[in-house]
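pinning this so it doesn't scroll away 📌
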Amino acid sequence: FFYTFKPLILLMERYELFRESANKHFLTADRFLNFTFRIVNEPKMLLGVVENIFLALMSSVSSLLYFERLFKFIPPFPDTFEGKLLAFKPLLIKYSLGEDNIKLIEKLHEIMVVHKKCPIEFVKDNALIMCSSSYDCEKLTSEMVVIYFKKAKLFIEESNTILRKNERNYRNIN
């Protein structure tokens, strides 16, 4: 008889880890936006909020994908941004989630890519302006981030509800 120690994290399914990660990233974005940003009022902090919203959304997408994969409802998918979005599109229809969620994720991804590639960033009129080397500019304001935050909140709550409902259904079957 051999006793092996298995940490709790190994006992959780992969989709549960991603759901937990989504909730943590969203909580971080909430704290940044509604507490820290309100006090400091520094537009450069908005990038941290956008990043956490994006990570929360992608973790939520991953959670739904890995849940579906666990029960073999979908084939294996590439573990990349594009691969996950492509695999997720049929689930939008299955769970009536709406195309706006994909557009939101793509917009936040675009903001993150522009930020990483832009050589020039500055603050003007309480907005963060990110410029490429050819001076194509992207503006990020707190009003925009609040809209992204509210849309993400609805999506994450919806995906958590879907997972809870389906967990009960499939646990009763197995």
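📌 and the second one:
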Amino acid sequence: PKVTSIDEYFVRDQTSLNSVKLSDNVTEIKFAAFFRTSISEINLPESLIEIGGSAFADCHNLNKVVLPGKIEKISDKAFSYTVLESISLPASLKSIGNRAFENCVKLKKVVIEDASEPLEIAVGDPVFFECRIDSIYFGRYFSGNTEAIKGNAYFSHAEFGPKVTSIDEYFVRD
């Protein structure tokens, strides 16, 4: 049988786990599947469509993630409290949850790839709350939460791609 889903709490709190290789058939990683493990990087399979809430939260060594080109959903707090240094959100991404990258204090560079459709931001808390983003590229506009980048007073560079035609009030706010 081919593994297509990683269950909730799969290896939660296994602090000795520092390396993971996922099957090329995995389409979903469920809630808190790798919560509070010691993995430092993960290559997500191209088949992956959805990352559940807190899936990689509190992985204090996680500094590198490459999101696949088919990913459609990143849920609440999926990568919160990690040490990611950069992240590129692919054009395939349709929605992203509250505080998905909360308190990623080493997150310096964010790229939101160009796409015609808006990126749906969960109404509630900001996606990048309490990060230290230095540079961000907006390749499309957001819908939903108009304070998606709240709590980031560290920007030195922001660039808007050709698909961004308007910016909501309070979009980037402290």
